[in-house]
Each structure stands twice: as C-alpha cells, then as structure tokens.
Design a protein that fits this description.
314 residues; alpha/beta; Rossmann fold; seven-stranded parallel beta sheet; three-stranded mixed beta sheet; binds nicotinamide-adenine-dinucleotide; binds serine
C-alpha cells in the first residue's frame, strides 16, 4: 500500500486529487498538506498538516513521520501571480522542488511534479508543439517549469529517484477556484455565465490555448504514476492535452446551454503577452504511446458537465 504526501493540497488540482487518491489508496494513507488551513472535508477525512513546502526540515520530518513513499508536489505560484512577484515565484517553485527532491533522494520516495504549457516560449513551434522542441519561456513561471523538468530528470539519472511529470495545459474545474494563472478565464467564464449571464474576458477573443477538464487531469496524474517505468522515455515532461479553446469558441459552446450569454473583452496586456507566448496546440503523442494517455472530455462535453454542476449547486 502506498503512503502518499501531497503538497499544495488545497489548490485547484489538490482539491480534486486528495479525494481521488484517498479513494484509491485509503484515507489514512494520503497526507494532505498546504501552507494554509483547509476545510473540514479535507482535514477530517484523512491526515492533514500545515506545511510550507520550501521548509526542507519540516518536509523531511513529515515524510519520515508518515512513512511516505510517494510525493505529489503541487505547491507553486502560477503564471500571472508569478509575473507580479518573480522573485517569490522562483523561491517558492524552485525552493519547494529542491526540498521535495532531496527528501525523496534520502527516503527513496517517488515524486510527481506538474510542468505546464508555460514551459514553452515565443520561439517554440506553436501548432503543433512537438514533445521535444525549443524551450525558452518568457515568464518566471515558465523558467521554473523548464528548470524543474531538468532537475527532476537529473535526480532520476543521478540518484535513481522515480520522478515523473506532465506538462498540463490550462485546467478547467468547479470547486476550488484557479490560483492566478493565464488560463483562469476558462473557469471564470462558467461562473459568470451562470451567475450573471455575461463575462468580460481578459484575453483577446481569438487567443487559442490547450485546455483539459479536471477529471481527465486527475486520470492523467494517476495514469503516469501507475505507468510501467520501463516504457517511460519522457518521464518528467509529457505533453498532455484534451482540447484547444478560444474565448469566442467557448462562449459559443456556452450559448448552446445559455442562449443569451454575452461575452465582451477588456484585454490585460500582461496575461495576453503570456498567452501569446504559449502554444496553440501541443502534440501529446508521446504520452499516448508511452503510457496510454487519452482524455474523455472534449470542449462540448466539458462545457455541458461544468454547467450542469454549477447550475445544480447554485
Ligand atoms: P493553485 O494555485 O490552485 O494551488 C496551489 C496551492 O499551493 C495553494 O493551495 C497554496 O496555498 C499552496 N502553496 C503555495 N505556496 C506554498 C508553499 N510554500 N508551501 C505549501 N503550499 C503552498 O495551483 P494548482 O492549479 O492546483 O496547480 C498545482 C500545480 O500544477 C502547480 O505546480 C501548477 O504550476 C501546475 N499546473 C496547474 C495548471 C492549472 O491550470 N491549474 C496547469 C499546468 C500546471
Ligand atoms: N493554468 C496555468 C497558468 O495559466 C498553466 O500552467 O498559469
């Protein structure tokens, strides 16, 4: 039986991953941790600790105390927040990853670390973006993601740590709100469509980005960690995607359910520049070939499911 620790467990991904891993591996075997206190749904259903993932000593104590053998490392600052405070983004994203990899080396833990489409930059081929290509991101977030992919590769090659990772696209979900990314519009649009029937988008109408519905992202996380290691060539940097969305295209999809829905635009130059530097469509054939990745949701089924959940809980 696995003994799992999740950092950054209260975020957009963690709020879905904690219950899924507790269901798969047993509630007592999944330790949720975050910088801040989380709701009773997380803290009463299994072990929970307040933990700053950049605090290497506290992290090591937690791993030893709970006899952890697998770490899902989600704590990070996202792209837009990272551009507001690049120094902090470097310290949190790289400091926490270094702490996780060191404790994993010492305690023989496996490690999952998410990378991102943010690891690509303006010089990268945009459509399709190959698995192995130019990686020169223009944001501090992207720089930490490329450095993180390389550091995870290094800990595997040099120390034999079982590191694995995915380059996630923008993730769409209900529940915990997104944490300050450039793709947050694709979540916000649903909340505003249901509550106000209109949405003002901070990206241009034709800005195309890769996206994925959270149930597929959680399947991908479980899939890569359960994959046969002998088959993994791109261990820490698999492109994965499910759909390509523009604000005008997603608005059309929402109008199939809310015909009067209106979208307008008030473009934020910082987030627009970030989006313009990212791919239009990544090629995820390596993930499909090496460990059988494939999404269940496309734009239409995702939008229908999002609206059903938000309408029913509203
Ligand atoms: P999020 O911002 O929603 O959540 C991050 C969590 O980390 C928060 O609960 C926060 O309290 C916690 N945290 C921040 N600093 C911490 C620290 N020092 N110690 C412990 N916890 C800390 O982020 P998310 O969307 O859940 O993303 C998780 C990971 O997945 C990140 O590495 C992110 O880059 C990556 N990712 C996310 C997306 C997406 O669209 N959500 C896409 C690609 C990659
Ligand atoms: N959704 C994330 C962001 O926009 C992508 O890594 O920052």
């Amino acid at each position: 039986m696995k003994h799992i620790l999740i950092t950054g467990a209260g975020g957009q991904i963690g709020s879905w991953l904690v219950p899924r891993l507790r269901e798969l591996y047993g509630e007592a075997n999944v330790v949720a941790t975050d910088l801040r206190d989380l709701g009773t749904e997380v803290t009463e259903a299994g072990p929970f600790e307040i933990l700053d993932a950049t605090d290497a000593n506290a992290l090591a104590q937690c791993v030893i105390r709970h006899r952890v053998d697998t770490v899902y490392h989600l704590a990070a600052l996202l792209s837009a927040t990272g551009e507001q405070n690049p120094k902090l983004a470097w310290e949190v994203n790289m400091g926490s990853l270094e702490a996780v990899l060191e404790v994993a080396r010492e305690q023989r833990c496996a490690v999952f670390t998410p990378s991102s489409i943010g690891a690509f930059g303006p010089d990268t081929p945009k459509n399709p973006t190959p698995q192995d290509t130019i990686m020169r991101p223009a944001t501090m977030y992207g720089i930490t993601k490329v450095a993180g992919e390389l550091l995870c590769d290094y800990y595997h090659a040099r120390y034999g740590v079982d590191t694995r990772g995915l380059r996630f696209p923008g993730l769409i979900s209900y529940g915990a709100p997104p944490g300050g990314g450039t793709t947050d519009w694709a979540v916000d649009i649903f909340y505003k469509a249901v509550s106000e029937g209109r949405y003002t988008c901070f990206l241009r109408s034709d800005s195309q980005l890769d996206m994925m519905y959270m149930p597929d992202a959680i399947d991908a996380l479980v899939g890569i960690m359960e994959a046969n290691p002998d088959k993994l060539v791109h261990r820490n940097a698999f492109n994965v995607t499910a759909m390509q969305l523009t604000p005008e295209g997603l608005a059309d999809e929402i109008r199939k359910h809310i015909p009067d829905f209106r979208i307008d635009y008030d473009v934020d130059p910082v987030r627009q520049a970030i989006a313009d530097s990212w791919p239009d469509r990544i090629d995820d054939s390596a993930a499909r070939e090496e460990w059988g990745w494939g999404p269940n949701f496309d734009g239409a089924t995702m939008a229908a499911d999002m609206l059903e959940h938000l309408t029913n809980t509203d």
